[in-house]
Each structure stands twice: as C-alpha cells, then as structure tokens.
Design goal:
Blueprint lengths: L2 H14 L2 H12 L6 H26 L4 H30 L12 H25 L4 H23 L4 H24 L1
Helix pairs in contact: 1-6, 1-7, 2-6, 2-7, 3-5, 3-6, 4-5, 4-7, 5-6
Length: 189
C-alpha cells in the first residue's frame, strides 16, 4: 500500500470516528456555548487512550489470524459501527417514534470527562478494526483519531453558531456511518 492511500485511509478513519464530535460541537454552538480548548483537549485525551487500547488489542489479535481473516474481521467491525451509527440516529427513531432530547449545560471538567468517555467508546472499536487490518496503522490511526477529534469538536462548535448548522447537524450521523462503511469495504478490496 502506498503512502497516499495509507494517508487517505487513516484520515477517513479519523474523520468517521469523530463526526459525532461535530454534532456535540454543533449542539453547544446552537446554544451559544463556547467549547473551550482545554475541555476539547480533555475529551480527546480520553479518546486518545481509548483508541490506543483498541489498536493494541487489535494488533495482539492480528498475530493469531491470517491477513485475509483480519480483513474480514476489520470489515465486519467497521461496517457494524457504521450501521449502528445510522440505526442509532435514524432507525431507532423510526421504530420507537421518538427521539431523546439531551439537556445541554455549560462545560466544566466533569462534563468534559463525561463527554470524553461518551464520545470515545467507538474509538476502541475503530482502533481495533484498523489494527486488525494492518498492525502498522497503530500510531497513525491513534494520532488521526485524536487530531480529528479536536478538529471536529472545534468545527462543530463554529458551525453551530453559523447558518448551515441545521443541515450538517441533521446528517452528520449518516455521513459518519457511511464513511465507516466505505472504509470497511476498502478493507476487503
């Protein structure tokens, strides 16, 4: 795999695993609450640690399965994440007919830690899937997830204060899920 393809894949993984961060940033921006950099740093420090756990777990397991099996495991994990994200946002609402509303409050250290863990569960699975497909992706994947985590919260907060927030906020989960599925299919090609 050439460096450009690797660069694209790692950035797609970073972006797709953090589009939910954009939604959080938008939610705070819509309420005119600024998302401070130090809170963003805490959230993504937790994301860094959880992604690291995921890639090392995936790297360990990849020693015991073939590269073809690893590609299918990676496909299954990443595709499942994408489908789960789309279902969580759209399917659940269609089946049960209601959407939960989250009360937004000002940001402090407790909210930052809570958001960090809440937004980072997918990082474990994303890191796992990326490491299973290629154990050389460990550090680039973790760094990509962390950097894109910071960028997407900041960008979402800026967009939330802007005019296109309703459009992106409504479709960010769909885009995130489809990016995961796209990366999943690339793993088996």
């Amino acid at each position: 795999m050439d460096w450009f393809t690797l660069f694209i894949i790692i950035n797609l993984i970073g972006i797709s695993s953090n589009l939910d961060n954009t939604t959080v940033g938008i939610a705070y921006g819509l309420k005119k609450i600024r998302f401070p950099f130090w809170i963003n740093f805490i959230v993504n420090l937790i994301g860094f640690v959880t992604a690291l756990v995921g890639v090392y777990l995936g790297s360990f397991i990849s020693r015991y399965i073939s590269s073809e099996e690893a590609a299918w495991v990676s496909f299954s994990v990443l595709c499942s994440i994408g489908l789960f994200i789309v279902y969580s946002e759209y399917g659940h609402q269609l089946i049960f007919g209601k959407k939960q509303h989250i009360k937004i409050q000002n940001l402090g250290i407790r909210q930052g830690i809570f958001l960090g863990f809440t937004l980072s569960f997918s990082n474990i699975i994303t890191g796992f899937g990326a490491a299973i497909s290629n154990h050389l992706f460990i550090w680039p994947t973790v760094i990509s997830i962390t950097i894109w985590g910071i960028i997407t919260i900041w960008l979402g907060n800026k967009i939330g204060k802007g005019t296109i927030s309703k459009l992106l906020g409504k479709y960010s989960s769909l885009v995130s899920g489809l990016l995961f599925i796209l990366v999943a299919f690339y793993q088996i090609l």
